[in-house]
Design goal:
The chain is an alpha/beta fold and 301 residues long. It has 8 helices and 12 strands. The chain is globular.
Length: 301
């Protein structure tokens, strides 16, 4: 009888010990780490903050001028053949919707070849003004609102980067009916060294731009000012224009056939083949001009 009681006491004691041990382990275990306790992963945090995966390569003025010399006088058609030879079939050709705002069929002053400086404007998601639509404001308040928007939200921080041979390429807000490019600022860009402008969107003052003879390639006319319509997003970063990737430093060739973008890494190979193409074309057409008694023009000189 005593043996049975002893076994019962031992069993109860053992069970209590196990229970106490389990409870002790449970209560002494470290609590699950909270989000605040976790150490941040630098790589993840870098992406969370916003990261560009295509790096911007920088080129000197001397390097740019050397490349531009290779492309001097080449046409979009010649360069397209050069791109094919380099294995870049149907790459770099902007949509035919991107067309010259004006043409000079005698001296071809609408044509240009330049080095891409890229700019991106995006449609705004901000209200027009704190107290209702802009048209409801008094003139002084409206002018102040316009100036503030230009200065803080839709400025032109790319202007100091323009240099001799620059081709300004704008990825803009195509449905905003905005004239980010106008007859005034396009002349300022030209005076800084810009040889031509390409946008996947719109421009205004197109009559005056044609008179000023500044090469412009765009999709359609836009009438409004930038305030209330778009904002500057980035400068000298990869953009998409006319369905084509454009990286800073790429070569832009534009004429009556449209616009083509030559990736910088393939520039010399493309230019070499394109040069042979245009020289053969000129020789052949020159013979036909003589045969037909046509006066010589800039296309065969």
């Amino acid at each position: 009888m005593k043996t049975g009681k002893l076994k019962t006491i031992v069993a109860v004691t053992s069970l209590a010990s196990v229970t106490l041990l389990a409870f002790s382990l449970f209560t002494s275990a470290d609590p699950a780490p909270t989000e605040a306790d976790q150490k941040p992963n630098p790589e993840i945090e870098e992406i969370r903050a916003g990261k560009n995966f295509i790096l911007t390569k920088l080129y000197s003025t001397k390097e740019d001028q050397k490349i531009l010399k290779l492309f001097e006088g080449l046409r979009v058609a010649d360069v397209t053949d050069g791109m094919d030879k380099a294995g870049l079939f149907n790459i770099g050709l902007m949509s035919p919707e991107i067309h010259p705002a004006w043409k000079d069929t005698e001296h071809y002053r609408h044509r240009f070849i330049g080095i891409a400086l890229t700019v991106r404007y995006v449609p705004t998601n901000k209200p027009h003004a704190p107290k209702g639509p802009a048209p409801n404001m008094e003139t002084k308040a409206f002018d102040s609102w316009v100036g503030n928007w230009y200065n803080k939200l839709s400025s032109e921080p790319f202007v100091p980067l323009i240099r001799k041979g620059t081709a300004l390429v704008l990825d803009d807000a195509p449905n905003a009916d905005v004239g980010s490019i106008g007859s005034n600022n396009i002349m300022g860009w030209k005076s800084a060294g810009c040889v031509g402008v390409v946008t996947n969107a719109t421009a205004r003052d197109t009559d005056e731009i044609a008179t000023e003879k500044v090469p412009l390639y765009f999709r359609k006319v836009g009438r409004g000012i930038r305030p209330g319509r778009n904002e500057i997003e980035s400068v000298n970063r990869p953009v998409v224009c006319g369905g084509v990737l454009v990286e800073p430093g790429d070569i832009i060739v534009a004429d009556g056939d449209g616009v083509i973008v030559v990736p910088r890494a393939y520039a010399e190979e493309v230019a070499e083949y394109a040069r042979a193409t245009i020289e053969a074309d000129k020789r052949g057409r020159l013979e036909m001009y003589k045969k037909l008694g046509l006066p010589l023009d800039d296309s065969v000189r």
